[in-house]
Amino acid sequence: MFLNSNLFEPGKSKLERNFVQVLTKQNNRLDGRSADDFRDVELTFGAEWGIVALTVGQTRVLAEVTCEIDAPTSARPNEGALFLNVDIDGVSFLDEVQTTHDQRVLALNSLLERTFRSSRCLDLESLCIASEQHVWYVRVNVKVLNHDGNLYDACTTAALAALMHFRRPDVTYNDKQIRTYSEKERELVPMLFLHYPVSVTYCVYKSSSKPVVDPTLLEENAADSVIVLSFNSYQELCTLNAGGSAPTTAHIIMQCARNASRRCKSMVQFIRKALALDTERRQAKQPVGLLELMRSTMPKITYNRLMNEESDVPVTNNEPVSNMATVATPQHQEPQNMIKEQRKQNKQEPVTPMDDSTWLPSTDEVKDKDNPKLKIKETLPQVKETRPKGSNNNRGKGKGGKNQKPKRTESDSEEETKPVI
Amino acid sequence: MEKQKDEKSGNEKLRQMSCEFNSLSRCDGSVMYSQGATIVIAAVIGPVETKTQNLCIDGSYLECNYRPKAGLPQVKERIREAAIRDVLELALLSESYPRSKMSVQVQELEDRGSMDACALNASCLAMLIGGLPMKYSFAAVHCIINEKGEIVLDPDLSEMQHQRASFTFAFDSVEGNLLLIQTKGSFKIAEFNDIECLCRAASAQIFEFYRSHLANYHGRASKETATTPMEET
């Protein structure tokens, strides 16, 4: 019968792939967004601390944070630990070939690991109760409820929001005895962060030079390569994951990185605002909890609503654009997009002082270096997002180093925050 | 009936129910169902191709999974899963799709009491909305006797802390037969009978809830079914 149930997934058949390729070539998207438009993000906080449900378009994930006291490892006796796990066995992955399933789990887990653990976003020393004896272990469990593309961003955003929402009970350590205080005795303690990383995903197609942001499942499956970038709120690169078979130039990656860094910054702002709104509601004894997913007695906490209240820069003109895109002819649209791009570039130059001149001379070398790699990749098209662990990872690190050089001044700000905390 | 309900004390009422159909895009039918603050998501896929080891030539294979909010399913969840599977196997008209698989997934979102009953009701609604063939629909009701000997129907988490005995009943919609009984704790046979009658009456409300919401969803809402008595309270 159906030996390859991958065919059930949108974007896996040749026809759909060709369709998406042609669509991106025409600078169109199936849902009417432009290439740099994001879908709206909605956050719902649970009744307990550390539970967050996140909806991006049709993609839904649920993140939960728990903590427990245990003995530390001998290598780091005065640090707690952060564990992350993505569970995609849920209702969305009923019929899937085992290999793609494993690949997805691996890709997502490694992304979370690098974004949160390797970048050391939590202050782990603050999780220590008694050195060499008792530390907190914090676990983040992300459950995928529905997959409609861009699980990467959904998982990192949900995990970060859940960590920021989470509060642990206060403890004291006296005479070799741990005393845990209940919520009534002492206020719960929030996590201490060194920085706040979030990822942004781009899809690159062979037919078009313009990467597509926040892909749907159809676009993600049909993409030739997927680039995932994690930035923190100081706009420092935490993860770069670039794989696949589309020939990507350093130019495109840098362009993605610049846009992504801005998006990540505003995303973290959005989470902060959402948390503030949540505490406001809790203090006012208004109903909180996942029940809001269904009842919506309160206005929903969505990115577009919260972030457009004062700032006009983000995707306010979402709907008019989508209408235009469906009605207007390609000729009409091209000048529009050109203007848009130009505007963006005008905008970018003042925003990001580090510019082409600092790294462009080296691009030719980079290109030459990259090209053989890309050719090798093209011969192995079936290896996709999960591969970057090896060779691409190193590449990512190289880029990261280059990217951070001009930003030294900014990266200092992270060190400045440490003593404050 | 309506009048009787008004006379009843708060202990003998079901909590407010609500549901949202097809909130997930990647399955044949899904429902987000809540009773009070307890929320579950149930999703079905079927009939689909099955593995050869599960293939059954005279009926379809039923796969049922219950997933807790965090972590892997433990013994408690396995028991719940088995209860759901038992009831579903009774209700599912499996002969209509031989050599195929029906899959039901229940995901807990928030457990604030009466989880067993909620999971069962959600899976029934998911089967109905997914269009899987069933002999009858079913409704489950949870009830406890607290330390004072009072009967509490559909308790929430705080009420469940003081329980002497707890009961979960599931009834079918056609003949009102008992499909499932789960009891815990000590009680008298007379109490058991009382509670069964109470739960049976409550199950009628749940069936009414199914009917009105499904009619609403399919755009055939009549005036009588547009608002359920539960939502008025």
TrEMBL record, chain A:
Biased composition regions of type Basic and acidic residues, renumbered to the chain: 364-388, 407-421
Subcellular localization: Cytoplasm; Nucleus
Region (Disordered): 328-421
Predominant location: cytoplasm
UniProt keyword terms in alphabetical order: Cytoplasm, Nucleus, RNA-binding
Superkingdom as given in the UniProt entry: Eukaryota
Signal peptide limits: none
Compositionally biased intervals (Basic residues): 396-406
One GO process term, biological-process aspect: U1 snRNA 3'-end processing
Gene Ontology cellular component terms for the protein in this record: cytoplasmic exosome (RNase complex); nuclear exosome (RNase complex)
MF GO annotations: mRNA 3'-UTR AU-rich region binding
Residue ranges constituting the Exoribonuclease phosphorolytic domain according to the UniProt record: 37-169, 195-262
Entry keyword annotation includes Nucleus: yes
Gene3D superfamilies tied to this protein: GHMP Kinase, N-terminal domain (3.30.230.70)
Keyword Cytoplasm belongs to the record: yes
Family stated for the protein in its record: Belongs to the RNase PH family.
Protein name, as recorded: Exosome complex component RRP45
Source species of the chain: Drosophila lebanonensis (Fruit fly)
TrEMBL record, chain B:
GO biological process assignments: nuclear mRNA surveillance; poly(A)-dependent snoRNA 3'-end processing; rRNA catabolic process; rRNA processing; U4 snRNA 3'-end processing
Single GO molecular function: RNA binding
Subcellular location, principal: nucleus
Keyword Transport among UniProt keywords: no
Top-level taxonomic group: Eukaryota
Keyword vocabulary terms for this entry: Exosome, Nucleus, rRNA processing
PANTHER family recorded: EXOSOME COMPLEX COMPONENT, EXOSOME COMPLEX COMPONENT RRP46
Name the UniProt record assigns to this protein: Exosome complex component RRP46
Species whose genome carries this gene: Drosophila lebanonensis
